[in-house]
Amino acid sequence: MRIFIPGRQNEIREIRNPYLTTRIERMNRLIMFCIGILFACIATGVVNGEEVSDAPETMPEVTGDLYSGSIDLTSGWNFVSVTRRLADSSNTATIFRGIDSAGHSIWTFNQNNGGWNDLTEDEKILPLEGYWVYTTSPVSVPLRFSDDPLQVPPVKDMISGWNMFGFTGSTPASARDSLLSIRNFWTEVIGFDPAMQQFEVTIINGGSNEQVDSRMLLPNHAYWVYVTESCSLASIGA
């Protein structure tokens, strides 16, 4: 054991205590023995009676299908959309074939194409478009999305006045964020409540209270939007 002797600058002497030295040596031997046992257990693959494996843990199985979805329809009129491009094998109005529409057509609206249009079965269902669909009873319409990794995000051209658009987010997003690409051109947005069969309270760009633009837009829903001049709405989803 080394000690510092007061009064003698920088003088250090080593004092040996035979009893203390022997005790320390025994403790060191015990520690080394325990370390040896531990390494032996690790080498044989056993620690605390349990087998140790170097194999990586099995990753949890991923459930669900990223390329499937559905549109839930309520009795009466529904103002709907698809959040992403549909697979080529299931991207036409035939996806609504099993619905009892009581003879009602499926309607869409595009100012650039002459306004209202009733769909035929071979017309494509596209993201960013809105569709009016009638059903006599609640039903879920299955969807199959495109798995093309090189697809270009869709864009919808709008002209001054009222336009319909489909929400393209997979989760709810505020009107302000959803319409960020046309933030300088839109003035109001109106949704439709299928349960009440009536239009919702208008959302105003920069509005407050019930009309605040932080109100959420919903997946598979479509909306009316008024824009002051021609512009292009970009998708916020894939």
Question: Can you characterise this structure?
Answer:
The N terminus is likely disordered. The protein is an alpha+beta fold and 238 residues long. 22% of the residues are buried. The chain is globular. The chain contains two helices and 20 strands. The strands form nine sheets. A four-stranded antiparallel β-sheet has the order 12-19-14-17, with no helix packed on it. A two-stranded antiparallel ribbon has the order 1-2. Strands 3-4 form a two-stranded antiparallel sheet. The protein folds into two domains: 39 residues; 167 residues, no CATH class.
Topology:
Elements (H helix, E strand, L loop, with lengths): L1 E3 L7 E3 L3 H27 L1 E2 L2 E2 L16 E6 L2 E5 L26 E4 L4 E4 L12 E5 L3 E6 L10 E4 L2 E6 L6 E2 H4 L7 E5 L1 E2 L4 E2 L3 E2 L11 E2 L4 E6 L3 E4 L4
Antiparallel strand pairs: 1-2, 3-4, 5-10, 6-9, 7-8, 11-20, 12-19, 13-18, 14-17, 14-19, 15-16
Class by alpha and beta content:
alpha+beta
| Order of helix and strand elements from N to C terminus | EEHEEEEEEEEEEEHEEEEEEE
How many helical elements?
2
Largest sheet: 4 strands, antiparallel
C-alpha geometry: globular
Structural domains: how many? 2
Percent helix range: 10-25%
Q: Kindly state the mean pLDDT as a whole number?
A: 81
Strand content: 25-35%
Strand order of the largest sheet: 12-19-14-17
Low-confidence stretches: 1-21, 37-63
* Number of strand elements: 20
Query: From the alpha-carbon coordinates, what is the Rg to the nearest angstrom?
Result: 35 Å
Q: What is the end-to-end distance?
A: 72 Å
